Amino acid sequence: MDISFLGGPRPQRGVGVVAPFDFALDRELWRWVPDEVSLHLTRTPFVPVEVSLDLARLVSEHETLGDGVRTLTAITPEVVAYACTSGSFVGGIAGERAMCEAMTRAGAVPSVTTSGALLEALAELGVRRVALVTPYTVSVTRALEDYVAEAGVMVTGCAFMGLTRHIWRVPYRDVADMARRAVRRAADALFISCTNLPTYDVIPQLEAELRIPVLSANQVTMWAALRRLGTRAVGPYQALIDPAARIDPSARGGPVLPDVPDVPEQEQQ
User: Would strands 129-134 and 111-113 be described as parallel, antiparallel, or unpaired?
Assistant: First the structure.
Protein backbone atom coordinates (compact mmCIF):
# COMPACT_ATOMS: atom_id res chain seq x y z
CA MET A 1 0.00 0.00 0.00
CA ASP A 2 1.32 3.42 -0.95
CA ILE A 3 1.39 5.69 2.10
CA SER A 4 3.63 8.40 0.66
CA PHE A 5 0.74 10.87 0.74
CA LEU A 6 0.92 11.00 4.55
CA GLY A 7 4.02 13.18 4.38
CA GLY A 8 5.05 12.78 8.01
CA PRO A 9 3.93 14.53 11.21
CA ARG A 10 3.09 18.21 11.43
CA PRO A 11 5.95 20.50 12.46
CA GLN A 12 6.32 20.60 16.24
CA ARG A 13 6.85 23.71 18.34
CA GLY A 14 8.28 23.26 21.80
CA VAL A 15 7.77 24.88 25.21
CA GLY A 16 10.37 23.94 27.80
CA VAL A 17 9.13 23.81 31.38
CA VAL A 18 11.30 23.83 34.49
CA ALA A 19 9.23 22.68 37.47
CA PRO A 20 10.03 22.02 41.14
CA PHE A 21 10.92 18.45 42.05
CA ASP A 22 7.51 17.86 43.68
CA PHE A 23 5.41 19.09 40.74
CA ALA A 24 2.67 16.50 40.10
CA LEU A 25 0.30 18.08 37.57
CA ASP A 26 1.99 17.51 34.20
CA ARG A 27 -1.33 16.41 32.71
CA GLU A 28 -3.00 19.69 33.77
CA LEU A 29 -0.40 21.77 31.94
CA TRP A 30 -1.05 19.78 28.76
CA ARG A 31 -4.75 20.67 28.82
CA TRP A 32 -3.95 24.29 27.91
CA VAL A 33 -1.69 23.31 25.00
CA PRO A 34 -2.83 23.27 21.32
CA ASP A 35 -2.05 20.22 19.18
CA GLU A 36 0.95 21.67 17.36
CA VAL A 37 2.85 22.43 20.58
CA SER A 38 4.75 19.96 22.76
CA LEU A 39 5.78 20.47 26.37
CA HIS A 40 9.23 19.34 27.46
CA LEU A 41 9.43 19.17 31.26
CA THR A 42 12.40 18.92 33.56
CA ARG A 43 12.51 19.15 37.36
CA THR A 44 14.78 20.79 39.89
CA PRO A 45 16.84 18.48 42.14
CA PHE A 46 15.12 17.07 45.23
CA VAL A 47 15.66 18.86 48.53
CA PRO A 48 14.20 17.51 51.81
CA VAL A 49 12.25 20.67 52.68
CA GLU A 50 8.50 21.14 53.05
CA VAL A 51 6.63 23.86 51.14
CA SER A 52 7.85 27.10 52.71
CA LEU A 53 9.72 30.28 51.90
CA ASP A 54 12.97 28.32 52.36
CA LEU A 55 11.90 25.81 49.72
CA ALA A 56 10.81 28.62 47.39
CA ARG A 57 14.30 30.10 47.60
CA LEU A 58 16.07 26.78 47.12
CA VAL A 59 14.19 25.74 43.97
CA SER A 60 14.61 29.16 42.36
CA GLU A 61 18.36 29.69 42.68
CA HIS A 62 19.77 30.93 39.41
CA GLU A 63 22.24 28.05 39.12
CA THR A 64 19.40 25.55 39.59
CA LEU A 65 17.23 27.28 36.98
CA GLY A 66 20.13 27.53 34.55
CA ASP A 67 20.88 23.82 34.88
CA GLY A 68 17.22 23.04 34.25
CA VAL A 69 17.09 25.18 31.13
CA ARG A 70 20.32 23.68 29.77
CA THR A 71 18.85 20.17 30.01
CA LEU A 72 16.23 21.32 27.50
CA THR A 73 18.49 22.96 24.92
CA ALA A 74 19.05 19.76 22.90
CA ILE A 75 15.36 19.73 21.92
CA THR A 76 15.39 23.45 21.06
CA PRO A 77 12.25 24.82 22.69
CA GLU A 78 11.18 28.25 21.48
CA VAL A 79 10.36 29.50 24.98
CA VAL A 80 11.09 28.29 28.50
CA ALA A 81 8.74 28.63 31.48
CA TYR A 82 9.52 28.29 35.16
CA ALA A 83 6.34 26.69 36.53
CA CYS A 84 6.45 27.66 40.19
CA THR A 85 4.53 30.51 41.80
CA SER A 86 6.23 30.84 45.19
CA GLY A 87 9.68 30.27 43.71
CA SER A 88 9.13 33.16 41.32
CA PHE A 89 7.57 35.68 43.73
CA VAL A 90 9.80 35.06 46.76
CA GLY A 91 12.34 37.63 45.56
CA GLY A 92 9.79 40.27 44.60
CA ILE A 93 9.49 41.84 41.17
CA ALA A 94 13.24 42.42 40.84
CA GLY A 95 13.90 38.80 41.76
CA GLU A 96 11.42 37.54 39.18
CA ARG A 97 12.99 39.63 36.45
CA ALA A 98 16.45 38.37 37.40
CA MET A 99 15.19 34.76 37.12
CA CYS A 100 13.95 35.39 33.59
CA GLU A 101 17.27 36.94 32.64
CA ALA A 102 19.19 33.97 34.08
CA MET A 103 17.00 31.48 32.21
CA THR A 104 17.32 33.39 28.95
CA ARG A 105 21.12 33.47 29.30
CA ALA A 106 21.17 29.71 29.89
CA GLY A 107 18.89 28.81 26.97
CA ALA A 108 19.11 31.72 24.53
CA VAL A 109 15.30 31.75 24.26
CA PRO A 110 12.56 33.93 25.78
CA SER A 111 11.67 32.96 29.34
CA VAL A 112 8.64 33.41 31.58
CA THR A 113 7.80 32.57 35.18
CA THR A 114 4.47 31.87 36.80
CA SER A 115 4.52 35.03 38.92
CA GLY A 116 5.64 37.20 36.02
CA ALA A 117 2.83 35.67 33.95
CA LEU A 118 0.38 36.54 36.72
CA LEU A 119 1.24 40.24 36.54
CA GLU A 120 1.05 40.08 32.74
CA ALA A 121 -2.42 38.52 32.94
CA LEU A 122 -3.65 41.07 35.49
CA ALA A 123 -2.49 43.85 33.16
CA GLU A 124 -4.15 42.17 30.17
CA LEU A 125 -7.50 42.12 31.99
CA GLY A 126 -7.11 45.59 33.53
CA VAL A 127 -7.25 44.20 37.08
CA ARG A 128 -6.59 46.68 39.89
CA ARG A 129 -8.17 44.69 42.74
CA VAL A 130 -7.59 40.98 43.18
CA ALA A 131 -8.63 38.28 45.65
CA LEU A 132 -6.20 35.45 46.39
CA VAL A 133 -6.50 31.75 47.19
CA THR A 134 -3.40 29.81 48.19
CA PRO A 135 -2.65 26.37 49.59
CA TYR A 136 0.30 27.86 51.50
CA THR A 137 1.12 28.72 55.07
CA VAL A 138 0.56 32.27 56.26
CA SER A 139 4.19 33.35 55.67
CA VAL A 140 4.23 32.21 52.04
CA THR A 141 0.79 33.72 51.46
CA ARG A 142 1.94 37.07 52.84
CA ALA A 143 4.89 37.03 50.45
CA LEU A 144 2.44 36.64 47.54
CA GLU A 145 0.35 39.52 48.84
CA ASP A 146 3.48 41.68 49.04
CA TYR A 147 4.46 40.74 45.47
CA VAL A 148 1.05 41.66 44.07
CA ALA A 149 0.97 44.90 46.07
CA GLU A 150 4.43 45.80 44.76
CA ALA A 151 2.94 45.67 41.26
CA GLY A 152 0.30 48.22 42.29
CA VAL A 153 -2.61 45.79 42.57
CA MET A 154 -4.77 45.88 45.71
CA VAL A 155 -5.48 42.59 47.48
CA THR A 156 -9.13 42.75 48.58
CA GLY A 157 -9.38 39.31 50.17
CA CYS A 158 -7.33 36.21 50.81
CA ALA A 159 -7.94 32.63 51.93
CA PHE A 160 -5.22 30.05 52.49
CA MET A 161 -5.02 26.38 53.42
CA GLY A 162 -1.84 26.14 55.47
CA LEU A 163 -0.47 23.11 53.61
CA THR A 164 3.20 22.11 53.50
CA ARG A 165 2.93 18.95 51.34
CA HIS A 166 0.72 16.92 48.99
CA ILE A 167 -0.91 20.04 47.55
CA TRP A 168 -1.78 18.23 44.31
CA ARG A 169 -4.27 16.08 46.26
CA VAL A 170 -6.57 19.00 47.12
CA PRO A 171 -10.00 18.37 45.50
CA TYR A 172 -11.82 20.93 43.37
CA ARG A 173 -14.54 21.39 46.02
CA ASP A 174 -11.95 22.67 48.51
CA VAL A 175 -10.54 25.08 45.93
CA ALA A 176 -14.06 26.39 45.21
CA ASP A 177 -14.84 26.80 48.92
CA MET A 178 -11.67 28.84 49.46
CA ALA A 179 -12.46 30.97 46.40
CA ARG A 180 -15.88 31.86 47.78
CA ARG A 181 -14.30 32.82 51.10
CA ALA A 182 -11.66 35.00 49.44
CA VAL A 183 -14.16 36.98 47.35
CA ARG A 184 -16.12 38.54 50.19
CA ARG A 185 -15.31 42.06 49.02
CA ALA A 186 -15.39 43.57 45.54
CA ALA A 187 -12.56 42.35 43.30
CA ASP A 188 -11.81 42.59 39.60
CA ALA A 189 -10.42 39.04 39.50
CA LEU A 190 -9.49 36.03 41.60
CA PHE A 191 -6.07 34.36 41.48
CA ILE A 192 -5.61 30.76 42.65
CA SER A 193 -1.93 30.30 43.43
CA CYS A 194 0.45 27.30 43.21
CA THR A 195 1.20 25.24 40.11
CA ASN A 196 0.67 22.08 42.21
CA LEU A 197 -2.98 22.96 42.90
CA PRO A 198 -5.52 21.49 40.41
CA THR A 199 -7.69 24.21 38.83
CA TYR A 200 -8.48 23.58 35.14
CA ASP A 201 -12.07 22.39 35.47
CA VAL A 202 -13.04 24.65 38.36
CA ILE A 203 -12.18 27.92 36.57
CA PRO A 204 -15.31 28.17 34.35
CA GLN A 205 -17.55 27.18 37.26
CA LEU A 206 -16.13 29.88 39.52
CA GLU A 207 -16.23 32.54 36.79
CA ALA A 208 -19.92 31.83 36.22
CA GLU A 209 -20.63 31.99 39.94
CA LEU A 210 -18.42 34.88 41.00
CA ARG A 211 -18.90 36.94 37.82
CA ILE A 212 -15.22 37.89 37.63
CA PRO A 213 -12.23 36.43 35.78
CA VAL A 214 -10.58 33.56 37.62
CA LEU A 215 -6.86 33.04 37.04
CA SER A 216 -4.73 30.13 38.18
CA ALA A 217 -1.00 29.50 38.35
CA ASN A 218 -0.80 26.85 35.63
CA GLN A 219 -3.25 28.75 33.44
CA VAL A 220 -1.27 32.02 33.40
CA THR A 221 2.02 30.14 32.92
CA MET A 222 0.79 28.36 29.80
CA TRP A 223 -1.03 31.46 28.52
CA ALA A 224 2.11 33.59 28.75
CA ALA A 225 4.44 30.95 27.29
CA LEU A 226 2.18 30.21 24.33
CA ARG A 227 1.64 33.92 23.78
CA ARG A 228 5.35 34.24 23.11
CA LEU A 229 4.99 31.62 20.38
CA GLY A 230 2.28 33.72 18.77
CA THR A 231 -0.34 31.10 19.53
CA ARG A 232 -3.20 30.79 22.03
CA ALA A 233 -3.77 28.51 24.97
CA VAL A 234 -6.77 26.18 24.97
CA GLY A 235 -9.24 27.10 27.69
CA PRO A 236 -12.93 27.20 26.75
CA TYR A 237 -15.06 29.41 29.01
CA GLN A 238 -11.96 30.86 30.74
CA ALA A 239 -11.94 34.64 30.55
CA LEU A 240 -8.18 35.04 30.20
CA ILE A 241 -8.05 32.70 27.21
CA ASP A 242 -11.51 32.87 25.66
CA PRO A 243 -12.56 36.48 24.92
CA ALA A 244 -16.17 35.33 24.53
CA ALA A 245 -16.14 34.39 28.21
CA ARG A 246 -15.19 37.88 29.41
CA ILE A 247 -17.79 39.89 31.28
CA ASP A 248 -18.02 43.63 30.70
CA PRO A 249 -16.84 45.19 33.98
CA SER A 250 -19.85 47.54 33.94
CA ALA A 251 -22.16 44.51 33.80
CA ARG A 252 -20.61 42.61 36.66
CA GLY A 253 -23.03 42.22 39.48
CA GLY A 254 -20.56 40.64 41.85
CA PRO A 255 -20.74 37.12 43.21
CA VAL A 256 -24.09 35.67 44.13
CA LEU A 257 -23.09 34.15 47.45
CA PRO A 258 -24.63 33.58 50.86
CA ASP A 259 -23.40 35.82 53.63
CA VAL A 260 -20.11 34.45 54.93
CA PRO A 261 -18.91 35.76 58.30
CA ASP A 262 -15.32 36.87 58.66
CA VAL A 263 -13.15 33.99 59.82
CA PRO A 264 -9.89 34.43 61.77
CA GLU A 265 -6.79 33.44 59.82
CA GLN A 266 -6.09 30.39 61.93
CA GLU A 267 -9.53 29.03 61.04
CA GLN A 268 -9.00 29.74 57.35
CA GLN A 269 -6.01 27.41 57.46
Answer: unpaired
